[in-house]
Structures are given as C-alpha cells and as structure tokens.
Design brief:
rod-shaped, about 220 residues, mainly alpha
C-alpha cells in the first residue's frame, strides 16, 4: 500500500511538473507569436509611411511648379493690363495734341489776334495740360495697382508653397519597436525532486501506518 501511495504521489508530482512546463511553453510561444506580429505590423506601417512621404514629395514638387506657372501668368496679365493703360494714355495724349494743334491752326487761319485770341490759346493749352495731368495721375495709380497686384501674387505663391511644404517638412519616423517578450520560467527540477521526495515520505508513512503490529514487541528483553 505504501508503494502504491508513493507511486501515485510521484506520478502526481511528475504530472504537475509536466503541466507547468506545458503551460509555460504555451505562454512563451504565444508571446513570441504576438511579438512577431507586432514587428510585422510596425514594418508595414513604416513602409506605408515612407511610401506616402515619397508621394507627398512628388505632389509638393508638382504644386510648386503649378504655383510658379500661375504666378507667371498673373504677372503677365498684370503687365499686359498696365501696358494697355499706358498705350491708351499715349493715344489719348496724341489725340489731344492733334486736336490742340488743329484748334490753334484754325484760330490763326481765322485771322483773330490780340488778347482775345491769346486767351483762347491759353485756355486750349490749359485744357490740354489738365488732361495730361489727369492721365499722369491715372497712370501713376495704375502703376501702383500693378505693383500691389504683383506683390499679392508673389505673396500668394509663397504662402501656397509654404503650405505645401508643411506636408513634407519632416521625414516620417519609424514607430518605437515593441519590447521583447518576457519568457516565463517553467517549473524548476528542484520542485520535481522535492515532489518525488515528498511522495516517498508519504509512501513510507503510509506503509508504517498500515503494517501489522509486532507480536513479540513486548516480550523483547531490553539489553
């Protein structure tokens, strides 16, 4: 009976030891799988971020080129408008000058002289001068408007380029790598040895408790 008890306890100790070993091995295997999965996800995210950044850089370069083209078009339109205003002013001045010369020629052809004729000539010259002054003021205003318009175009180009650059200003950084898994320690062999030893003691105790009493115990002569 003691041997059976010892064997049963020993088998229980071995079974418990093996069960703990299997549990630790399963937990470690699961931790390793999860760690590898996290590394794979990190790698995929990193590749996706780098690919997106490369695309963003291409888009940035295209945006800068588009902004430059739009700015040049804006400058050209503003310059054409200013040129047309100067051209129109020149035609108007030429027309007024021709009209002045014709009017003064008519005055002379009519034979009018004296202060009356002089006053008319002065009036025509003054009108011509006022028209020229208005045209000069208008052209000055047009030139200032042109300068403001081109400055607005330049500032808009800079702002849009800066906004586009914000998308690629910083290169992507890889995520922090996940910490390596901590492996669980399985049961030590000392626990198995201890369990087997305890099983032996239990078996011996059971044997001692169940063996037949010694009939000659009380008849033995003490030496």
């Amino acid at each position: 009976m003691g041997i059976a008890t010892a064997a049963s306890s020993g088998l229980g100790a071995v079974s418990s030891y093996q069960s703990q070993q299997q549990q630790a091995a399963a937990a470690n295997a699961g931790a390793i799988r999860n760690y590898k999965y996290q590394l794979k996800v990190r790698e995929q995210n990193w590749n996706r971020q780098r690919s997106q950044w490369e695309n963003d850089k291409i888009n940035y370069e295209e945006t800068v080129a588009d902004n430059s083209f739009a700015a040049q078009e804006g400058y050209a339109r503003a310059q054409r408008k200013l040129n047309e205003q100067f051209k129109a002013a020149a035609f108007a001045e030429e027309s007024d000058l021709i009209g002045l010369m014709e009017s003064m020629g008519e005055m002379r052809a009519s034979g009018r002289t004296g202060q009356s004729a002089q006053r008319i000539d002065n009036a025509m010259l003054a009108a011509f001068g006022r028209n020229n002054a208005r045209r000069a003021a208008s052209l000055t205003s047009a030139k200032q408007g042109y300068q403001q318009q081109t400055e607005d175009i330049r500032r808009q180009q800079i702002d849009e380029n800066e906004m586009a650059f914000d998308e690629v200003a910083f290169a992507p950084q890889a995520d922090i790598a996940p910490p390596a898994p901590t492996m669980q320690q399985g049961p030590s062999q000392l626990s198995l040895i201890s369990g087997l030893a305890n099983a032996g003691v239990s078996g011996f105790s059971a044997y001692q408790g169940l063996k037949a009493p010694d009939p000659y115990k009380n008849l033995r002569i003490k030496g």
